[in-house]
Amino acid sequence: MARHLITSALPYINGIKHLGNMVGSMLPADVYARYLRQTGRETLYICATDEHGTPAELAAKEAGLPVSEFCAQQHAAQKAVYDGFHLSFDYFGRSSSAENIEITQHFARKLKENGFIEERAIRQVFSIADDRFLPDRYIVGTCPHCGYDKARGDQCENCTRVLDPTDLIDARSAISGSSDLEVRETKHLFLLQSKLAGEVEAWIDEHGGDWPVLASSIARKWLTEGLHDRAITRDLDWGVPVPADTWPELAAEGKVFYVWFDAPVEYIGATKEWAAQDAADRDWKSWWYEADDVRYTQFMAKDNVPFHTVMFPATELGTREPWKKVDYVKAFNWLTYYGGKFSTSQKRGIFTDAALELLPADYWRYFLMANAPESDDTSFTWEVFSASVNKDLADTLGNFVNRVLSFSRKRFGDDVPAGSEAGEAETNLGREIAELLAEYERHMEDLQFRKAGQALRALWSAGNSYLETKAPWLEIKTNPEGAALTLRTAMNLIHLYAVVSEPFIPASAAAMRSAFALPEDTATWVTSDEAKSLSFIPAGTPFTVPPVLFAKITEEDLDSYRERFGGGADS
């Protein structure tokens, strides 16, 4: 059986991320990792903060901190939020780690050895006002391809085209806003992607056929436009240093590697950090080097696709070493806020720390995954969010759990009642649950999260339909044994929901499961065949009624949310 390696695009270090970042990479990766673990697959989920580059330097300067201290603080702050969202990383590392520096430098040496890195004298933008060379990200202007007037010097956020700073129209410094720029000569290292283009295309032909259209189309767009040699060093104080044993002159000048060169290597670096915590039992290299038994799945938003499907595979191929390359790229469109883009820099939309202040993580986890922006962009509105929470979580699932357990406790006491033998209604219910569970599993295997959310909701709804049909509150008047059967069957549904809902709503799943005193309850999953019997909890099992799982969002709540966050993209 294949081992499963999962990574999500590294969140950048400069500040808490918004919900769009969460649903675009880390949350779906967590849902998938949880599902794989529950269904018995060996799984390693790796992520880290992306800490190098000019934005980190500038954010640290604004905070009045050394950049290393700033990054350490921000790593801890981000990790606390991800813990709050119950993200089940096996390891959450840092791209500034010694392990990443070591492996990045190794990659660079191998690429040079194989003729895929070249030192070139180039002319680079220098800001007179800032008295420094400007990295590409800190030159802004108008994109020559789509006319977006806030394009960066490395990539246009609007059309995702890769740019050079000199491509921009009306270029200016993003630091000072000054357009007093001049071009000066300096030396940098270039990754010769043009020499690797054929190999990258052949690799995508072999492995990209089953990727989502979003991922494969972006990768092929890059290939069609042609892979250009790309500078992979920058004039910065903070980053992975160019190794002095290989490029002494550039090292003496303080050159560091471009953040997009070292950041993907941190997937490997973080795995090595993870292994170092238990060196006797963990072998990081088996996950990455000659790892033929590993299936590697990456999760990312669409703007990260080019670097993961073209640039990093080119880097790996160029080493001429058997490094593991991605098998499946799960790419997402954008979650928007009332039709406008969530934006960290413009502070528009809901940020993950603020989300957790409002409501528990499971509210957000369920809504985001059930409405994941897979086929197109998805617009977040408070109205749609509250309707989903109230209908699916509070009414369909939460109310089912509460009324079954409360009614049974009131009429039959604190133990699961026995009742009569299962009849036709229970047989039909078991068959329906088995079919819905098989559908849910199929969508999870295919990484179709919106469809998986629909199937999960249908599982919850089936319990409500059964309860309404059997109506134990009426049945008990004429057939107490029949009512006991109905409630026992419903309690078995609650246990099933607790197990299979865990990938989406882990905290609530744990609360449902802990309602039953089952010391021997070691089930990690319920198969479709097992689901038919609906007999996981024996009669006589003590149970408790947990607190309300999901509180409804009221109109007063909505008013306060809109006042705090705005009701639209322009507010």
How would you describe the overall organization of this protein?
The protein is 48% helix and 14% strand. It has 20 helices and 17 strands. Strand 4 (117-127) and strand 5 (132-133) form a beta hairpin. Helix 4 crosses helix 9, helix 13 (382-412) crosses helix 17 and helix 16 packs antiparallel against helix 17. The chain is elongated. The two termini are 51 Å apart.
Keywords:
571 residues, alpha/beta, five-stranded parallel beta sheet, four-stranded antiparallel beta sheet, 17 strands, elongated
The total count of helices amounts to: 20
Secondary structure: helix percent: 40-55%
What structural class is derived from the secondary structure elements? alpha/beta
Q: Which overall shape is indicated by the principal axes computed on the Cα atoms?
A: elongated
Order of strands across the main sheet = 3-2-1-13-14
Q: What is Rg?
A: 27 Å
Termini separation: 51 Å
How much of the polypeptide forms β-strand, as a percent range? Answer: 5-15%
**Largest beta-sheet details:** 5 strands, parallel
Mean pLDDT: 94
Q: Uncertain spans, ≥5 residues at pLDDT below 50?
A: none
What is the topology?
Elements: E1 3-8, H1 19-38, E2 43-49, H2 54-63, H3 67-84, E3 91-94, H4 98-113, E4 117-127, E5 132-133, E6 139-142, E7 151-152, E8 169-173, E9 181-191, H5 193-207, H6 213-225, E10 230-231, E11 233-234, H7 248-252, E12 256-257, H8 259-262, H9 265-276, E13 294-301, H10 305-318, E14 328-332, E15 335-337, E16 340-341, H11 352-358, H12 361-370, E17 378-380, H13 382-412, H14 424-445, H15 449-470, H16 472-478, H17 480-500, H18 506-513, H19 528-533, H20 555-565
Parallel strand pairs: 1-2, 1-13, 2-3, 13-14, 15-17
Antiparallel strand pairs: 4-5, 4-9, 6-7, 6-8, 9-10, 11-12, 15-16
Helix pairs in contact: 2-3, 4-9, 5-6, 5-10, 6-10, 13-15, 13-17, 14-15, 15-17, 16-17, 17-18
